[in-house]
Specification:
By secondary structure, the chain is an alpha/beta fold. It has a single domain, classed as tt1808, chain A (Alpha-Beta Complex). It is 34% helix and 23% strand. It is built from six helices and eight strands. Strands 1, 2, 3, 4, 5, 6, 7 and 8 form an eight-stranded mixed sheet that branches. α3 crosses α5. The longest helix is centred in the middle third of the chain and has 21 residues. The protein starts with 17 loop residues before the first strand and ends with a helix.
């Protein structure tokens, strides 16, 4: 008697997603998709640092802030905390998971509308790096592209912003609705009023990209 042949079911193996940290510049910018980086000539009003910030930075002079990425994150936290709380509709998420159908990873920081959970529109991706601005730029561009993809998938056609920082130096990015990637020059803590002014500008732009219905939903009823 002939033995019946068992047919194994065909199981689709999911494609492994690339990590942000494994991408080249070409691969990152093609996620947008784009081909070039454009110069962002940021026109900004200076924002004087608060006494609290100046006092905190003075106290941190007792710490070694140049040798590790953890130290850079501390400085980045402090600068963000100077400006972001003035925009109560925004929330900063640290170590935020971020993925698209082809790439995945964790953004050091992700700014989104204030909720108890992360939801689109994803407004700004931030990478804190120990002086490796090239690697930070690649990851930031990839993360911005994923934010744009996820936003559009859920009906939000908005600009996305990005920042790469080592604590002392800050570079700002803008990904437009037409898939143009703009990059600023370097802003540093040696000129705090200008640096804080640019960060304030980016936070204000993030607020402008939150749909009115979402903003109303976050406002307490009276």
């Amino acid at each position: 008697m002939e033995q019946a042949t068992t047919i194994e079911p065909i199981v689709s193996t999911p494609r492994t997603k690339r990590a942000f940290s494994a991408l080249t510049m070409e691969e990152a910018i093609q996620l947008v998709p784009s081909e070039n980086l454009l110069t962002w000539e940021v026109v900004v009003s200076q924002r004087p640092p608060s006494g609290t910030l100046l006092d905190t930075l003075r106290r941190l002079e007792s710490f070694e802030l140049f040798a590790s990425e953890a130290a850079k994150v501390l400085l980045t936290d402090i600068i963000l905390a100077e400006v972001v709380p003035d925009y109560p509709q925004l929330k900063v998420w640290k170590s935020a998971p971020l993925e698209s159908p082809t790439v995945a990873g964790v953004a050091d920081y992700l700014i989104a509308p204030r909720r108890a959970y992360i939801k689109t529109p994803l407004l700004c991706a931030i990478e804190a790096k120990k002086d490796d601005f090239e690697a930070g730029q690649i990851q930031c561009i990839a993360e911005m592209a994923v934010c744009l993809h996820n936003n559009r998938r859920e009906g939000h056609d908005t600009e996305v912003y990005g920042i790469v920082s080592n604590g002392q130096g800050w570079v700002f990015y803008k990904l437009t609705r037409t898939c143009e990637v703009f990059v600023s020059g370097l802003f540093t803590t040696s000129d705090l009023p200008t640096l804080l002014g640019v960060l304030d500008l980016v936070c204000a732009a993030c607020i402008a990209n939150i749909p009115v219905s979402s903003s109303q939903a976050q406002s307490p009823s009276v």
